[in-house]
Amino acid sequence: MGDTWLSLQLGHKKLSRCVSAACGFHNFKPEAGILNYYHLDSSLGIHVDESELDHQSPLLSFSFGQSCIFLLGGLNREHMPTPMMMHSGDIMVMSGQSRLLYHAVPRILPFPGGDMLPPCLSVPPATETSDPPLIEPCSTLDWEVCAQYLRRSRINMTVRQVLQEGCSFPQVENLSQLTEADSYHHYDGEEMGREGHDGKDVLTKRMKMTEDC
Ligand SMILES: O=C(O)CCC(=O)C(=O)O
Ligand SMILES: [Fe+2]
Fold it and tell me: What is the ipTM metric for this complex?
C-alpha cells in the first residue's frame, strides 16, 4: 500500500455528487477516496469496505482503462459470488444491502484487440459546454500520457462518505502521525494471501478531503 495521501480534487467531488444525487442520495459527502492501480497481472483480494463510520451512504466506484472481473459476494466470505465484468467508464454504486457485501477483483482482462484502449478513451474528451463544466480541460500531451498508461492498466477510483451526519474528523496536525490503523482502507496481507491468486497485489493510494471544496 502506498503511503502518500492525495487530495480528492474538486472534479472528483462534483462528479461524485452528481452520480450519488442521480441515484437518490442528495446529501452524499465525498470525503475520502481510494485509487487502485492495476497492472494486467494485479488482483485485489476479498474484502468489505467497512472502515467508514457511515454505511448509509453509497460507495461509488469508477473504472478506467482495461476491463476486469468483479466478484460480488455476500455478507460472509463463504457466500458464492456473482461474477460481473467492469469496463472503462462503468460506475458501480454500492448502497443499501450491497454496501457491506464482500467483493474482490481476481482478474484484469485486456480490452479485446490487444494493446489497445477502449473506444471511449481513444480520443481526448470534447470541450464541455455545460456550465459549470464537469470535465476539466486536458492538454493533448497529458491525454497521451494517460492513454499510454491505460493501454496496459486499469485504474479504479472509489469515493466514500466517511462520517455520519453531524460528526467531524479528529484534528491531526501532521498526516505522518496517522498509523495504518487510521487508514480508511486496510487490507490484511494474510487474508489476501489465502485467496491463492498468483497476480501481484494492486497498488493503492488514499485520497482525503480538502478543505477548499
Ligand atoms: O477495483 C475495483 O473495482 C474495486 C475496488 C475496491 O473494492 C475498493 O477499493 O475497495
Ligand atoms: Fe472494496
Answer: 0.99
